[in-house]
């Protein structure tokens, strides 16, 4: 079974998708981490961020994998050609680079192929922007998570502060609005809700309430 969780930055996708995967005993795939890994590879290699073909070649050449800590139910570490980039993919520099990288059509072709391969191996919860529309249009359950931009910015600012980065609320909100616009207006797979996705507005809901709601959708589809 495929559970597709899409939505904008800060909508709660990662938190919800992870908890849901643990509760269901499914695998979990963070597709944003894959685009972020290509962005880190591009920054490291000095690949021009405005050259889709060069970015595509890079995306096809790198090896992205996810690793479990002993005893953890889900992977917690991201490896790029065997190097741990778990922290590097969450820096402000990676945040900025990932928009042009994920807008490059050749990068998307490479990542979508990999996501389909990983998702097809076992029951899986995948989170991203285009899972229900492009990667797995036949997913049994499609959820589109939303929340107001202000709430999403508050959540991101908390994440940032917890990771030891600067977390000015106004700057985070501006970054979220910029990424929303970029992700939803780009030519290659713009972010949009699948027509048959269940929209869950997480504003004002606790994490547990959202997981319960999505788990009920999965149960109904089984
Ligand atoms: O979910 P995230 O913030 O880690 O995603 C990082 C970037 O990757 C975000 O700007 C949108 C892009 N992305 C995408 O285009 N398609 C996906 N399936 C997942 C993420």
Quick tags:
15% strand, 8 strands, 222 residues, 3-stranded antiparallel β-sheet, globular, binds 2'-deoxycytidine-5'-monophosphate, Rossmann fold, 5-stranded parallel β-sheet, alpha/beta
Structural class assignment:
alpha/beta
Query: What is the CATH H-level superfamily?
Result: P-loop containing nucleotide triphosphate hydrolases
Q: Based on CA inertia axes, which overall geometry fits?
A: globular
Q: Given the structure, what is the number of helices?
A: 9
- Could you say what the CATH topology is called? Rossmann fold
Mean pLDDT: 94
What would CATH call the class?
Alpha Beta
- The helix-strand sequence is EHEHHEEEHHEHEHHEH
Cα(first) to Cα(last) distance is: 9 Å
Instruction: Provide the helix percentage.
Output: 40-55%
């Amino acid at each position: 079974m495929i559970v597709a969780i899409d939505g904008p930055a800060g909508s709660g996708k990662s938190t919800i998708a992870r908890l849901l995967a643990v509760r269901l005993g499914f695998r979990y795939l963070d597709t944003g981490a894959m685009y972020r890994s290509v962005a880190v590879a591009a920054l490291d290699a000095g690949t021009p961020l405005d050259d889709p073909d060069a970015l595509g070649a890079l995306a096809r050449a790198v090896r992205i994998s996810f690793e479990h800590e002993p005893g953890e139910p889900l992977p917690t570490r991201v490896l790029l050609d065997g190097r741990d980039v778990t922290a590097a993919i969450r820096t402000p520099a990676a945040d900025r680079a990932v928009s042009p990288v994920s807008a490059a059509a050749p990068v998307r072709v490479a990542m979508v192929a990999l996501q389909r391969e990983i998702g097809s191996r076992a029951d899986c919860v995948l989170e991203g922007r285009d899972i229900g529309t492009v990667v797995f249009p036949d997913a049994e359950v499609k959820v589109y998570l939303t929340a107001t931009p202000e709430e999403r910015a508050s959540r991101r600012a908390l994440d940032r502060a917890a990771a030891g980065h600067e977390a000015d609320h106004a700057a985070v909100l501006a970054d979220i609005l910029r990424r929303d616009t970029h992700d939803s207006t780009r030519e290659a797979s713009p972010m949009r809700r699948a027509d048959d996705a269940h929209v869950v507005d997480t504003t004002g809901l606790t994490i547990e309430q959202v997981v319960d709601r999505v788990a009920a959708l999965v149960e109904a589809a089984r």
